[in-house]
Fold:
Amino acid sequence: MIEVRWHARGGQGGFTAAKLLGLAASVFEDNYAQAFPSFGPERRGAPVLGFTRIDDKPIDDHSQVYACDYVVVLDETLMEVVNVTSGLKDGGILLINTESAPESFKLGDNFKVVTLNATDIALKVLKAPITNTTMMGALAAASGIVGIESVLSAIDAGMPENLREKNKKAVMIAYDAIRGVK
Amino acid sequence: MSKPQIVKYKMPECKKDMPLGPSSEAGVIIEPNAGWRVMKPIIDNSKCVMCLRCWLLCPDGVIDREKGILEIDYNFCKGCGICSRECPQKAITMVKEGKQYD
Amino acid sequence: MTSGNKVSKREFLNGDEAVAYGVRLCRPNVVSVYPITPQTIVVEKISEFVANKLMDCEYIHVESEHSAMAAAMGASMVGARAFTATSSQGLAYMHEMLHYVSGSRFPIVMMNANRTLAAPWNIFGDQRDSMAQRDTGWIQVYVENGQEALDMIIQAYRLAEHEGIYLPVMVNLDGFVNTHTYELVSVPSQKEVDEFLPAFVSKNAVDFNNPRSYCMSASTEWNMEFRQQQHEAMMKSKKVIESIDREFGDKFGRYHGGMVKEYKCDDAEVVMVTTGSVSGTSRLVVDSMREKGLKVGLVKLRFFRPFPVEYFRELKSRVKAVGVIDRNLSFGYEGAVGSEVKSAMYDSCGSPKFIDFIAGIAGRDIKKDDIELMYNKLLNLSMGQEEAELQFIGMRWQE
Structure:
């Protein structure tokens, strides 16, 4: 079973990404998935978490996610207030939306750090700094846990019509960028 | 004006420390309560005539009038914008909150 | 005008949405609504279905949960298939109406989002709310995920409306852990559900051609006979629960286990009894402990009322120790499920050793480590070591 933790601030769509990833992996592929937010009062700007579980058999685990294979950080300022590497397994990947290069994050060798300037892509394509779908594309490329076609199908199924094309575009730009790096 | 003071609060460390039922001393504020503010009000004192309408209408009572000019306590202002909307002198502007989220 | 899937469709839904889809497929005539976290998504989704003409029912906004049940009862009394949903404080608020509905024998189905009761106030999940309604004469089932939730709404109407039963059914989901967690759910087609659950033709409703009095008082001379009748109906429902689940399994491919579902209990030395979502997490712990050669098993208690006393009487001769995870607590004694399991297993020939574990109150997570700890305590007990009969798990302080 794969477990992903998403870090965002309230209002940035962190949970939407967790949910769309689950939708992509389950309905559009032959897997089972679970997606849930950190349960608690939320307010715009406060740190929130999203979780996605993906498995090839039904997911029985209904406890919280404590150890994860991938961590996605939609807003790097969160790293000042939250320990985003907590629970990240050895050999896992930390994916950060940032201008900085992976080497600048001195976080040790136990996991890989992958970076992308998702804000830049989002501003250009979506005209807003909402990086959730962009980072979903990046995660698909960096991890291979879900096919990119499934991600695009999930956007068609899970987002309002007027948002679909531009979000799919942002996803592809991020996907190609990370694949290039890999 | 007796503004709420932010104090360090000692959480119970053992069963004996627990209060009788879910209650606590009054007047304890352990952190600022303005985290969801997106826009914040700035008073232009050169335009302000001290009519006190904003002070009267602020739902959270964060406008302090005691010093002779009006001061907003940004630890507790939620950015609702009522003060700005109601000021007859248009002395209060709402500006976008900086990158400093709570 | 209603429309639905022509074939079953895979959707990614949270537990509340799954319930809403289940309700839609059951074609209720009346849905009475009062929102409360974490049930709100159920009634919001149903309102979308009604607004989009995917459901053809009266959607009644009421001013409180007491009224929600009163409205559902009034609807059922005139022959409507009725649905409502609530949680926690709302369930408590409609308490007297729960008795009215069951005593009057109206086959209403209600979804309850298990959430703790104030005070202290908290919106997160435990089963204190529904356990406290144990004696109201409602059939109670506890589901572990969205699929089971959807399926049980459909089965609940078949059960409630079954000839000779006519008892209301409460379908319980764990707050947030089920209600707000998205999972893969197969939504059956409307055609299949119509075949399984025909339109409701009430045997207990106002009929102008055959005038009767309803919801009468019953004197001391007659009252106990009604209560015995109500009890016997619920006892009779045990077999009906099983047969409906079997039929559901044959038609939709998912048999959920009837009143109790065992996992790896055949050669188990110790077993844990669970209700709701923690059942799934516990199965993972059973698997990992089995890999270490430990003979542990899981008993998922699906129906709390009627209580499967026959099952537990039979279980006791097979195992050395039984534990119960209670997401509730009857202050001054022990957990509700624990009490009942223990008493069901008691007889003059002795019973297995027993521990009642209180865990997961007000949304405190029950981790796999916690469950493993509980199993280890049962194993200790089974090997003759001392263990307290009531234990709180996952607490801040150990004293």
Remarks:
- The CA atoms of residues 10 and 50 of chain B lie 40 Å apart.
- The radius of gyration of chain B is 17 Å.
- Chain B touches chain C at residues 14-15, 21-22 (CB under 8 Å).
